[in-house]
User: What shape does this take?
Amino acid sequence: MLSRSYARAERAMKSVPGADTLRRHCEAECEVRAQPSSIFEYIDRPERLSAHMARRSWQLAGASMAVETDAEGGRAVGSRIRLTGRMLGIHLYVEGEVVHREPPRLKAWETIGEPRLLVIGRYRMMVSIEAHGDRSHVVIAIDYALPAKEPARWLGMLFGPLYATWCVRQMTRDLVHQFGTGK
Assistant: This one.
């Protein structure tokens, strides 16, 4: 079941140009022992939420990505976030922009231009946080397109769903590790 704030964000995102091409969807959810304001403060810093990309892992073929932000630190609508790295000798790059931000309930960002990634193309990510007493329910979702060019498009058909699932699950696992479970 989608939270009310996630559904509100999804409606807002439909007005974004090109959103209709992001046909693939993946999400993960978790309960954490923290108030929405504490969770939002944590996820509002891209280097924390994207920490799984900065760690070497087999999902990234042993590579890692560096996270950079503009002067606003990815904490304002219009703020920019950039990830760069190398995987299997290929330079990877993606730049995103915060497109929706409602502290402490909702944040969304999406790619600018065509990213240079191996298994997913343009994407939009959303984090929705809903209070439940002394804990919170968090939904992290990605809507994405396949890469625009071959052979990455074929790799995306095969591995895009696995990568998207890994990515949102890592983000929820990092939140549970940071705050503890809500149960």
About this structure: The chain has a mean pLDDT of 84. The CA atoms of residues 119 and 158 lie 8 Å apart. The two ends are 18 Å apart (CA to CA). The helical segments are 4-13, 36-43, 46-49, 51-54, 152-179.
